[in-house]
Design goal:
Layout: H1 34-50, E1 54-56, E2 66-69, E3 86-96, E4 100-107, E5 110-120, E6 122-128, E7 134-140, H2 141-154, E8 169-171, H3 172-180
Bound molecules: zinc ion.
Zinc ion binds at residues 107, 109, 149, 153.
Protein name: Peptide deformylase
Pfam family, one: Pep_deformylase
Active site: 150
Length: 185
């Protein structure tokens, strides 16, 4: 457990092939643990530096059940909705819509490619916030997608595991020019 709270000292993003991305992360027991609170702060600043819209602790080699959803428009996701970063500890999906939608996803741990991935359109989630408050929330659309992507990381899955066809993988560059409509500078 204490090991699980200690990220890679350089806070590098674990890349596909690193076995930590395939482990089931440990539940967090001590919300007030200084190392947990420091890890949360590190992940928040990493997200704002990396143009990510979400991150899970295993991506920095801390195998504990912590994720952050932080949708905002940026260079990697120009059409993302704006929200304040939400820290979720020991998150669970407690309800889901029957509607599943496919859309493009990428991952800081799988650089350079995007995949067309099916996710529930709406979910209801429960988690502890960083002060230990139990919170229940409805998420929909892109924000629900981010949650499901990050939640998979806590269970040793990456988005590639959910591809329906290998033909639904494209490069970042093709994604930006064909799907988003941004021409390379
Ligand atoms: Zn990811």
């Amino acid at each position: 457990m204490s090991e699980a709270l200690t990220p890679d000292p350089a806070l590098k993003i674990a890349q596909l092939g690193n076995p930590i991305l395939r482990q089931v992360a440990q539940p967090i027991e001590q919300i007030q643990d200084d190392r947990l609170q420091a890890l949360i702060d590190q992940l928040l600043s990493l997200l704002s530096d990396s143009n990510g819209v979400g991150i899970a602790a295993p991506q920095v080699a801390a195998s504990c059940r912590l994720l952050i959803v932080a949708s905002r428009p940026n260079a990697r996701y120009p059409n993302a909705p704006l929200m304040s970063p939400t820290v979720m500890i020991n998150p669970q999906i407690v309800g889901q819509s029957s509607t599943v939608v496919k859309d493009w996803e990428g991952c800081l741990s799988v650089p350079g490619i995007r995949g067309l991935i099916p996710r529930y359109q709406e979910i209801e989630v429960e988690y502890l916030d960083r002060s230990g408050q139990l919170t229940r929330q409805q998420l929909s659309g892109f924000v629900a997608r981010i949650f499901q992507h990050e939640f998979d990381h806590l269970n040793g899955l990456v988005f590639l595991d959910r591809l329906e066809s290998l033909q639904e993988i494209i490069t970042d560059q093709e994604y930006l020019s064909r799907i988003v409509g941004i021409q390379p500078a």
